[in-house]
Amino acid sequence: MGKGGEQGGEAGEPAAQIRFYTWEEIQKHNLRTDKWLVIERKVYNVTKWASRHPGGQRVISHCAGEDATDAFQAFHINPTLVQKFLKPLLIGELAPGEPSQDRDKNSQLVEDFRTLRKAAEDMNLFRASPLFFSLYLGHILAMEVVAWLMVFYFGTGWIATLILACILTTSQAQAGWLQHDFGHLSVFKKSSWNHIVHKFVIGHLKGASANWWNHRHIQHHAKPNIFKKDPDVNMLHIFVLGDTQPIEYGKKKLKYLPYNHQHEYFFLSEILLPDPIFPLGSWLDPPRVPHPPLFPPDCGGKFCLKSIWETHHNPPFIPKICGEAQSARKKKIKKAKMQNQTIYSCRKQAWNKFLESHWFVWVTQMNHIPMEIDSEKHRDWLSSQMAATCNIEQSFFNDWFTGHLNFQIEHHLFPTMPRHNFWKVKPLVKSLCAKYGVQYEEKPLGKAFVDIVG
């Protein structure tokens, strides 16, 4: 049971009662209906509030009954503001004789890591560069413009479509890395601005849900490569990962798929799983689509923005730009044009998804899948992240190609740090790992890809 204590109040006020708790008692409160957290030696009951947590209630559940100080600092860019929400949830503190870390964690390692984080803050490594992100967004928009111009000048034949698909795949992949920056609150000083831009980028440029991303990805960062806690290693019986899961499946005689061939159907899943509704017929054998005119007759010979928009995006609703000439279009011509645009759009999107899905899967999995994948071991923040992540050698191409996720170790240790500063904090991290004998793994890009199949 918690122990009672007294704390003197201000003059004329009664002394406030403080309850002290032991780690043994705190660790019992790690259930779905009973969650306690410890942050900087203070004990919070977050059971009822967890459902309102912006990052989702599961990430809090994953840290229940533990010291969540480092996780709390890692995910919040303004901990002082968040403390106001925690204040009503405060129920006590760790007993004076209790260590600050639970489960015999190395307290000196934990303190040294927190000192490292403070040093990074003093070096302004958590401050984003407006120029970097402006140029990054600019090169994405530039590729979109080049893709449009290609359609007008070179048509929509097979060669043009393949080149166009490569350009759009690149812009979409880079937009994916950009939404990742905003999702981690690493661009603007205020969380609200990061959330707003994140919803725009992932919603309008990528066609995905910001809430869905936030719900899954924060769990991944809190407990990387931990079964039943990291959604990224919960492969829904399609793959068995790590060293322990195959043994468990073998003992239970679970065989949903031929797992001894998963290194082969892994490639097929990359094509089918991202978007299984693509019309394969038009992808494999699409008819040739006529060149869209820059000055179409139905626009009175004038430059027609509608033709440009339809050719590139083929959305369900197109603004009426061409005036009365649009309404005068013959139904037969309109129907034929819509069919051609649909075929072209399907062909372009199929190639985009094929290329982008491979790009995304290989880059995101090379840092985690070859690493340790196991059940919860209740490590400290540094040790848990290092066991589940590895880096890829730095180069200009690797930085750009992976959206700086080649610095996966630094990104996992400091999720809100702007990516252009990872290389600055890297020497500090390597030095701390060497001091405590924690493995810091870094490999070439090619070997990282080979290790995924391995």
From TrEMBL:
<keyword id="KW-0444">Lipid biosynthesis</keyword>
<keyword id="KW-0812">Transmembrane</keyword>
<feature type="transmembrane region" description="Helical">
    <location>
        <begin position="124"/>
        <end position="142"/>
    </location>
</feature>
<keyword id="KW-0276">Fatty acid metabolism</keyword>
<dbReference type="InterPro" id="IPR005804">
    <property type="entry name" value="FA_desaturase_dom"/>
</dbReference>
<dbReference type="GO" id="GO:0016020">
    <property type="term" value="C:membrane"/>
</dbReference>
<dbReference type="Pfam" id="PF00487">
    <property type="entry name" value="FA_desaturase"/>
</dbReference>
<comment type="similarity">
    <text>Belongs to the fatty acid desaturase type 1 family.</text>
</comment>
<dbReference type="InterPro" id="IPR012171">
    <property type="entry name" value="Fatty_acid_desaturase"/>
</dbReference>
<dbReference type="InterPro" id="IPR001199">
    <property type="entry name" value="Cyt_B5-like_heme/steroid-bd"/>
</dbReference>
<feature type="domain" description="Cytochrome b5 heme-binding">
    <location>
        <begin position="18"/>
        <end position="95"/>
    </location>
</feature>
<protein>
    <submittedName>
        <fullName>FADS2 desaturase</fullName>
    </submittedName>
</protein>
<keyword id="KW-0560">Oxidoreductase</keyword>
<dbReference type="GO" id="GO:0016717">
    <property type="term" value="F:oxidoreductase activity, acting on paired donors, with oxidation of a pair of donors resulting in the reduction of molecular oxygen to two molecules of water"/>
</dbReference>
<dbReference type="Pfam" id="PF00173">
    <property type="entry name" value="Cyt-b5"/>
</dbReference>
<keyword id="KW-0472">Membrane</keyword>
<keyword id="KW-0443">Lipid metabolism</keyword>
<dbReference type="GO" id="GO:0006636">
    <property type="term" value="P:unsaturated fatty acid biosynthetic process"/>
</dbReference>
<feature type="transmembrane region" description="Helical">
    <location>
        <begin position="148"/>
        <end position="168"/>
    </location>
</feature>
<comment type="pathway">
    <text>Lipid metabolism; polyunsaturated fatty acid biosynthesis.</text>
</comment>
<keyword id="KW-0275">Fatty acid biosynthesis</keyword>
<keyword id="KW-1133">Transmembrane helix</keyword>
<dbReference type="InterPro" id="IPR036400">
    <property type="entry name" value="Cyt_B5-like_heme/steroid_sf"/>
</dbReference>
